[in-house]
C-alpha cells in the first residue's frame, strides 16, 4: 500500500480514517485524480508514480489528522457487480466521489445509474456514505479547445437533483480542485457521522428517560 507523507500529521493526535471510493466510467480520470491527490503528481509530469491502489494519504483536514484511503477504482456499476460482492466492498466506504468527464456526455449520463447502484448497495451494506460529484478534465473546458460538452450548470443541477453534498470541476492535469475535493468528502462524511451519533445519543437518552419514568 502506498502512503504519501506530506503533510505529516502530529503523531500525538489520533488519526481519523476515511475511506473514499472513486466511481465513474472508464477513462474519466479516476486513477489520475487519485494519484494527483496522493502523490502531487499531475498528468504529463515526470517521473510518474507507479504505485497501484489502494492509495493512502495522511493530511490535516480542519486541523484534524486524517488518513484517507482510496481503494481500487472501479469503472462502472456493472463492473462493480462482478468485481466484488458489492455490499462487502462498500461497507468500509464513508464517502463516494462520482466522476464524469466534462468532454464526455455519456460519462455524465451514466452518473445517475452509478449513483442509484451505489445507494442501493450502500443501504444493504448499512453504509451511510456521502456523495460528491466531480466533473473531471476541466482543463479541456477552455473555450479555445472546444472539448467541453457538459456545462458547469448541468453538473451543479445533477448534484442538486441527486442531493449530493457538493459539485465541483477538477483536473488531474492542472490540479484544479484536486486538493479541495477529497477534503470536501471528508468534511461531509464527518458531518454525517456526527449527525448519526447525535441521533443515536438522543434515542438512548429518550429510552433512558422512559425507563426512569
Ligand atoms: N486533459 C485531461 N486528461 C485527463 C485528466 N485525467 C485523466 N486524463 C486522461 O484520461 C485518461 C484516463 O485516465 P484514468 O485515470 O486512467 O481513467 P480511469 O479509467 O477513470 O481511471 C488518461 O490516460 C489521462 O491521459 C484530466 O484531468 N485532464
Ligand atoms: Mg482507473
From TrEMBL:
Coiled coil: none annotated. It comes from the Eukaryota. GO terms for molecular function: GTP binding; GTPase activity. It is found in: Cell membrane. Transmembrane segments: none annotated. One of its GO terms (cellular component) is plasma membrane. PROSITE patterns: RAB (PS51419), RAS (PS51421). GO terms for biological process: signal transduction. Keywords: GTP-binding, Nucleotide-binding. The keyword rRNA-binding does not apply. It is a lipid-anchor. PANTHER family: RAS, DI-RAS, AND RHEB FAMILY MEMBERS OF SMALL GTPASE SUPERFAMILY. This is Uncharacterized protein. It comes from Mycena chlorophos. The lineage of its organism: Eukaryota, Fungi, Dikarya, Basidiomycota, Agaricomycotina.
